[in-house]
Amino acid sequence: MHADTRKVSATLARTHLVNAIGDGAFLVTFALYFTHVVGLPAARFGLGMSLAWAAGFLASVPAGHLADRFGPRRVAVALAAGTAVTVAVLPAVRGFPAFLVVICAYGVCQSGLTGARQALLTRLVAPAERTRVRARLQARINGGLALGAVAGAVALAVDTRAAYLAVLALDAVAFGVAALLLSRLPAGAGPAPAAGAGRVLTVLRDRPYAVLTALNAVMLLYMPLLSLVIPLWIAEATAAPTWLAAAVLAVNTVGVLLFQVRIARRVTDVASAARTVRTAGLVMLVACAVFAATAGTGSPWLTGAVLLTGALLQVLAEMLQAAGSWELSFALAPAGQHGLYQGMYTSGIPLARILGPAALTGLILGYGVPGWLALGGLIAGAGLATVPVTRWAARHRRRRNASRIISA
What we know:
There is one protein chain. This protein has 408 residues and is mainly alpha-helical. The protein has 2 domains: 1-190, Growth Hormone, Chain: A (Up-down Bundle); 194-408, Growth Hormone, Chain: A, CATH 1.20.1250. The protein is built from 14 helices and no strands. Helix 3 runs antiparallel to helix 4 (96-124), helix 3 (72-89) packs antiparallel against helix 6 and helix 5 packs antiparallel against helix 9 (244-264). The chain is globular, with a radius of gyration of 21 Å. It starts with a helix and ends with a helix.
């Protein structure tokens, strides 16, 4: 029996909003604080962040297993509190070894929290409502990130150690509040564990789901586009003013805030989810072609118009991909193992954070138009492959369920 969806959705929405406000302020200021104020060399800072997300990637599946074993609410509360503690400790960090320890703990808590919250959603929300509720949460996340980014921008404008420390305090408090809000949710009555639920490697042996996870990770390569690649592309390869990077980010934020829930309504089952992901890949290919068309254009106004067109297509692809992938991750996981399977599926996020920046800057800034088209083709190919792999995963799930019934 699932908890009251409205109450659960409202509490989860507040949790995600608070998290996102802290994250938005943190992400805008974090790099400058450690490189300009603390004095870490940029290369060491980048290495530390890569290792942190690598630790998060490796911890995703074990954290999901813990969510199944001890309950997703308990694990989500612990990881949110753990994130608050790691951020609160960061002002005391001076050298690289201490930075590496704390930031890896942060990566583990953040990555594990993502999967645990997804598992908690599946525990408390009826299957037919999960994707729509998740879409509403994503809209809140984008709104929170925007508010947090404003706070971070104020800190950047002030540019003092005290301002940066205030942002870290804001983020630590935000995760502490999130832990408190999560603790007020019902634990939910979970289904009986599936066969093999006690083994962490069970999900790795589920080949169709593992392939879907890999395809999803490829499609998540769009993540560094707005924060890293587009600003550098505008500055180095186009005639547009650099402030257009902020306009492109604003288009994305407002688009998700206004339309993510509407986009998610088209996803009603596994088949429609797979088709939606396929469409997302094709739209992303067109978006990449539009971005590529800005190379070498002479008119700043024309370049700006084309960039904003690409941004509209990119956010449409992002919303389609998100809605479809949520439904696939929920519907194809066996009962009693949503923590383990969500941990696996959401591990694509830290993986994209590890590989995306270096891969995309090298591909697009190094090769220009062919690089854009290669990226679009790669994402479109992953979207197209999602449809047959989803059919394979659905057949695998039916066989697994039939064998459980026979053995029972």
